[in-house]
Each structure stands twice: as structure tokens, then as C-alpha cells.
Amino acid sequence: MEWYPARFDLGFNRPRILPAMSLVDRFWFNAVWFQATWFCCVLGREAWVPLALLSVAVHFFLVESAPAEFRRLLPVALTGIAVDVMLTVLGVFDFSVATLVPLWLVILWWVFAAAVYRSFAKVGQSLWLAAVLGGIAVPFNYMVGAGLGAVSLPYGNTVTVAILVAVWAVLLPLLYRISQRMAPAL
Question: What's the total number of domains in the chain?
Fold first, then answer.
């Protein structure tokens, strides 16, 4: 059963063009899409939110079923946003915005959720590899973001990296599991 009445179908379930369907499922496309949107969010922040939203809209246009994709990505995106909110409340991050986390970071979590399911799915098949990657690559990305001025680290680099390594060595394998468990139900 769809989550909206058929008479309100906005075309999200319309038949897609075959090349578009296969494009969104290609590793290289998702890797490039993720990285481009990451730079858009981290470099442009609030000023480039419309461009980041356009990037997400393109993703949802290219998938076979936008409602199914939304349901698949929602748990991963919400988990990631909740973790960043928690780290902000605990003083690990300071985004210098009126809200706990900025809109560009929320958008980035939706993009990350799609990448976890598509581009990075092979890594998630090994929990150890996912833990190592989470403990190294994700803290590195936060450090790059801090270097670009997207976030301040009140505890300093060393303490922040130690916290992020511990969090992400557990969180990335968990996000892979959540992402893969959502797929069969759709």
C-alpha cells in the first residue's frame, strides 16, 4: 500500500527511462554524486542549500520509486542526524547556527544514506572493514570539514578525533546493517 492516495500521485511512481534507472545504481555515478554534493554542502553551506537540494531531487528522480527510496533512506538519515545532534549537544561540534545542526548537514545525511546503500554497500559486507573505515575515513571527513570552516571543534582536534573514531567504528557498521535490512522490505 502506498503512503499517499493514488489520486494524489505526483508522478513519483511513473515509469522511468531505462538508462536513468541503471545510472543511479552504478557505483561510479553514486560516488561522484556523493562527493560533489559533499563539497556543495561543506563548501557552500547555507548559501548552496538550494543546489544541494537540487542534487537530492535529481537522485529521487532517477530512482525507480521515490517513496520506496525515501523509506529506505529515512532510518539511516535520522540515525546520522541524531548522532550529530547528540555530538553537538555534548559540545563536540559547534556549527555556529541557531539550530542544533544546519540544514546543509541534514541534506548531507540524506546523501550519505543513499551512498551507504549504493556506493559503499560492498564495504558493509564486512563488519570489520566497515568499523575500520568508519573509524578512519569519517573522522577524516569531519576534520576536512573543520579545516574548511564548516564546523568548529571545541574539544580540539585530538579529543574530537578520538571521540569520532569510537563513535564511527560502531556507527558505520550499524548504518550498513540498517540500510541493508530496509532494502528487502521495499
Answer: 1
